[in-house]
From TrEMBL:
Lineage, highest ranks first: Bacteria, Candidatus Nomuraibacteriota
Protein name: Thioredoxin-like fold domain-containing protein
Domain of life: Bacteria
Domain (Thioredoxin-like fold): residue spans on this chain: 166-307
Record field: transmembrane: 73-90
Entry keyword annotation includes DNA repair: no
UniProt cross-references to Gene3D superfamilies, sorted A to Z: Glutaredoxin
Pfam families associated with the record: Thioredoxin_4
Keywords tagged on the record: Membrane, Transmembrane, Transmembrane helix
Gene source species: Candidatus Nomurabacteria bacterium RIFOXYB1_FULL_39_16
Keyword match Transmembrane: yes
Length: 312
């Protein structure tokens, strides 16, 4: 077992040092002998053991004696620890690539590849600030949610993406371009839902509904793209709404009348009630073929949720 540990250690160190490459070759020879049921080169084992003991004896004679006496057992212990830590690191790396978190999909907790937890941050529903929420993900679902009233792009695909976001949420704005890219690349069915999780964005949702009803879906999608990419402070200022509408050549008076009507208020209340059935706790919340992704994940995570093969 010391030979295997030495092979791994010296194999890595040998990349940078010629002297360690020679030791790596000796370790490989030792491993080869072991797997072919032959005795390992005694000289090499003694060499490795001697290097270890020489370091220890200068600090503690007693410890050196204990290591010498239980050398084989200690070698096995370190081997098991090395294998365990390697598996743990590989599992964390896989989870990070596929789910955006070392701990699994939508799981918070420390991740060396994402130490600040950016891939799981959301704007908490009912909160005026952005931050990580600790709510349970297991209850977030589309079951029993009626989405027919929301803006939809139906391509006839077997894949469906549902994006629930807030115009004022930095994390929704971060995820939006990746979702647009995913939908365009995969030609997936797409449903968008605005949830006013942060600040006063209800007036933007109302305007979007009015534009969709008056001018159709194409006009709505153009406005939607603008609201997620334009300067945040500008679009959140109600005084700028008329200028925004005019820049798209919309009838400002007509849009405002419908946006401020009882019909629109009732429709928006109904849509919010439907979204609350998902048990979402923050935006963005994205569903890909019914599977929930909370927070702005890297594009590869969304892509792998649709791909049959994770890495292609």
């Amino acid at each position: 077992m010391p030979c295997l540990i030495a092979l791994i250690v010296f194999g890595i160190m040998g990349i940078f040092s010629a002297s360690h490459r020679a030791l790596a070759k000796e370790a490989f020879d030792c491993i080869f002998r072991r797997v072919t049921f032959r005795a390992c080169n005694t000289g090499f084992q003694d060499k490795i053991k001697g290097k270890i003991l020489s370091k220890i004896i200068s600090r503690s004679t007693f410890l050196a004696k204990m290591v010498n006496k239980h050398y084989e057992i200690l070698s096995w212990i370190f081997f098991v620890l090395m294998i365990g830590s390697t598996v743990y690191v590989l599992n964390g790396g896989y989870n990070f690539y596929v789910y955006g978190s070392c701990n699994g999909l939508n799981e918070s907790g420390f991740c060396a590849f994402d130490p600040k937890g950016e891939n799981n941050k959301t704007t908490a529903v009912g909160d005026s600030t952005c931050g990580i929420t600790q709510n349970e993900i297991k209850n977030v679902t589309l079951n029993g949610v009626e989405l027919s009233s929301f803006p939809t792009q139906n391509t006839g695909s077997e894949d469906t993406v549902v994006f629930i976001g807030c115009y004022a949420c930095d994390y929704s704005r971060k995820a939006y371009p990746d979702i647009q890219r995913l939908v365009e690349k995969k030609q997936a069915n797409y449903v968008f839902a605005h949830y006013p999780a942060k600040g006063d964005t209800t007036f933007l949702g109302n305007a979007g509904y009015a534009i969709r009803k008056i001018y159709g879906d194409d006009a709505f999608w153009k406005l939607n793209d603008y609201l997620f990419t334009a300067d945040l402070d500008y679009i959140l200022d109600k005084a700028n709404l008329n200028a925004i509408l005019a820049s798209f050549n919309f009838d400002v008076k007509k849009v405002n009348e419908l946006a401020n009507s009882t019909e629109t208020k009732n429709m928006m209340d109904m849509e919010i009630a439907e979204l609350n059935k998902t048990n979402l706790y923050g935006t963005p919340t994205i569903f890909i073929n019914g599977k929930s992704f909370v927070g702005p994940k890297p594009y590869r995570v969304y892509n792998s949720a649709i791909n049959k093969f994770i890495f292609f």
